[in-house]
Write a structure and sequence with these properties.
406 residues; two-stranded antiparallel ribbon; 17 helices; disordered N terminus
Length: 406
């Protein structure tokens, strides 16, 4: 079920795909794929984004390795040791040799955090608290059966989940919150922002096709491609990635794919890809009005997808909560609620199109999280709390809780 708002956005995108009418807004034709050339050379590059996604994959996977130490996980997050020295924390030599890191790009967008360093530092510290908690609370209780106030393992079918004293899986908190703190923040609040795209002489240089040193792309083109890389940077078919979306990484790509599979939101992946493609073509054509309209479509659609997934996991967790003392239901319930927790944290990084505001303030997100984690956390949570949060999230968008919960 698509809303009138979504139909209008699609029609606007189609209109600008065909043409933009005056001399200040040259005609833009969207290419069939995300492939752009200058003098026969490819101009698309997002290797740094690919590296950070792969680093995040290894970090999250390693949070389930009970043989590792806190320092091992911190080195993956920081790509330096505690004194700022070189380290080799990854299984890949390419990642170990990289100057990139996860932490350096968490909550660092120009629009949301360049002047908000206190919150930026708090978010980085929160990730490190979760990593520290995984080792200090969960790893040390590997063989303990979890219970209210006690960290340890909890059954989920034939598998075991490992939770803190309140039932939260720290590895899920890190994984799903990185979708917001790294990928969504960098895409919506940094690289697609006019404050980054048009920074300094970027627009004039783009008008004159002035390319970066040792590159074939203008700075503006590259910034747009870096946003693209945080969604499609690990795709084997990055020029035409929609057919494989959901299978390329464990982060934003995966969950845009999940939302796209819901019949109520089918086509959202194509809408996002088409907007990326047309916006990049608009930069080549020097049509900045179309560029910004496509950026707004991306902001709306990615923000909506995050909200849909937050509601989905809260409702899945609610439906799995044990009844009549059925202890075997705690594992599935807590796993879904842990994923929902991470998506709620990610709501902070969503972006209203045409504004510099998130759909959710830090205070709103903290209120949701505090209501989930009060007292014994997931052990005490009830359906009323989960429905209240779900409704508060859905009310900001054009979907219902029932649509998102399917």
């Amino acid at each position: 079920m698509r809303s009138k708002k979504n139909l209008l956005i699609c029609l606007l995108g189609l209109f600008f795909m065909i043409s933009c009418g005056d001399d200040s807004n040259p005609q833009v034709t969207a290419p069939e794929s995300y492939s752009f050339l200058r003098n026969g050379n490819p101009t698309v590059s997002f290797s740094g984004q690919t590296a950070r996604i792969l680093m995040a994959e290894e970090l999250v996977s390693s949070m389930k390795n009970f043989d590792l130490q806190e320092s091992d996980l911190f080195e993956m997050f920081r790509n330096v040791d505690e004194n700022g020295g070189d380290v080799d924390p990854f299984s890949s030599s390419d990642l170990n040799e990289s100057t990139k890191s996860i932490k350096s790009k968490v909550a660092t967008s120009k629009d949301f955090f360049s002047a908000n360093t206190v919150e930026s530092a708090s978010i980085k510290n929160k990730f490190e608290e979760w990593i520290k908690g995984q080792v200090g609370e969960v790893f040390t209780n590997e063989d303990t059966i979890a219970s209210p106030g006690v960290a340890g393992q909890i059954a989920d079918g034939s598998s075991a989940r490992y939770v803190n004293a309140k039932g939260l899986e720290y590895n899920q908190a890190v994984a799903k919150s990185l979708i917001g703190g790294l990928m969504v923040d960098q895409i919506l609040n940094n690289y697609l922002s006019p404050s980054v795209l048009d920074e300094a002489d970027n627009r004039g240089n783009n008008d004159e096709d002035v390319v970066e040193d040792e590159g074939s792309y203008t700075t503006m083109e590259h910034k747009w491609d870096e946003a693209y890389g945080y969604l499609f940077g690990t795709s084997m078919t990055s020029e035409n990635p929609v057919s494989n979306i959901g299978s390329d990484d464990s982060f934003l790509n995966k969950y845009i794919g999940s939302v796209n599979e819901d019949s109520d939101f089918a086509g959202i992946a194509q809408e996002i890809f088409d907007a990326f493609k047309l916006g990049r073509a608009a930069i080549v054509a020097k049509n900045y009005e179309t560029r910004d309209q496509q950026a707004d479509i991306i902001k709306d659609k990615i923000s909506e997808a995050i909200a849909i997934r937050a509601v989905f996991y809260l409702q899945q967790g609610k439906n799995a909560l044990p009844t009549n003392g059925n202890q075997s239901a705690y594992g599935p319930a807590f796993h879904n609620l842990s994923e929902g927790f991470g998506f709620i944290y990610t709501l902070r990084f969503t972006r209203k199109s045409g504004s510099n505001e998130s759909y959710f303030s830090r205070e709103e997100v903290d209120s949701f999280i505090n209501s989930m984690m009060k007292d014994n956390g997931f052990w005490d949570i009830n359906s009323v709390t989960l429905d209240n949060i779900s409704n508060a999230i859905a009310d900001k968008f054009d979907f219902t809780v029932a649509q998102a919960a399917e």
